[in-house]
Amino acid sequence: LKPEEWNPHIYWQPIPIHTVPLTKDVVLGAGATAPCALYDLETSRVEKSPAIKKITTHLSNMYKFVTEESGMEVYDFKTAMRLYDPLLIEDMYNFSLPSWTSSVYPEPLREAALFSFVMPTWSPLQQRLKVGPLLGEIMKHFIEKRNGNLKPDRKLWMYSAHDMTIASVLNTFGSFDIQFPPYASSLLIELRLKNDKHYVTMFYRNSTTQKPYLLPIFECNVLCPLDQFISLVQPFVPADWEEECNSVTLTSSGVPSDFALILIAVLFSSVILLLALVVTCWIKKRRQNWYSNMKSSSEKDIPSQP
Questions:
Q1: Helix (H, G, I), strand (E, B) or coil at 34
Q2: How far from chain centre, in Å, is Cα 119?
Q3: Which of 44, 145, 185, 205 could form a disulfide with 150 if both were Cys (CB 3.0 to 4.6 A apart)?
Q4: What is the pLDDT of residue 301?
Q5: What rounded mean pLDDT belongs to the chain?
Q6: Computed from CA positions of residues 170, 173, 178, 179, in that sequence, does the dihedral angle turn out positive or negative?
Q7: What residue ranges are annotated as transmembrane (predicted)?
Q8: How far, in Å, CA of 302 to CA of 198, rounded?
């Protein structure tokens, strides 16, 4: 047998797949399977923002209708996607859809489902906490490859992820066209060498009949110099993802983190200030009552004029 062969009758080379537990998969599962308190807090803030509330209000009647007709509770973009996806698959394979879907499928159910791909990386902080670990690893590999100290010195790093991962990376790079990434889509982020200079390119393969599309990365050219790529990506890469995520909760030792301590101090100071204000008002009121009583008593002692 040749070194790469494991069976003389099967011409196939096994490729090892390295996995980590879902709750520990920070690179691909940040903010999803790998929980992040700060990400959840920021997502909640985004959901309550005027822009999102306006869209949600616009879709509220549709949510109510599909909940009643489907028996599935639909109340936001994510739950809308859970309903839209099976309808899309059934439609693709020419299954007959329930008659009630004609008024909501594909639109406006598709509109709501599309927003589920934008919401996870709506704000820069969400992008940093959700996509930052993956971008940081890619950036690290590129730097080490350029410097000649990448170990193991591979030419390809492949990540098996979801359509949501592709959408999140594209949205962070400013290249997402708010369309569903088709099944088996892929992103190819490549380090290239041209005239002794290193560049980064990004191709989006979303079709089996078309060549991959060359997309810009942030405001950089499609052929982005590596140093510029690093400077653009760096703000989105957490120095310590877990520490940032826990900045709104207790630390692992049970001691409040710096952010929590500041928050507690502000709240405590506010309570003290409020109590001081209440006490001051109470004392002032007591003095006014006392003065009024004294004045009334004095006036009673003064004889009236004839």
A1: strand
A2: 7
A3: 145
A4: 43
A5: 86
A6: negative
A7: 259-283
A8: 100
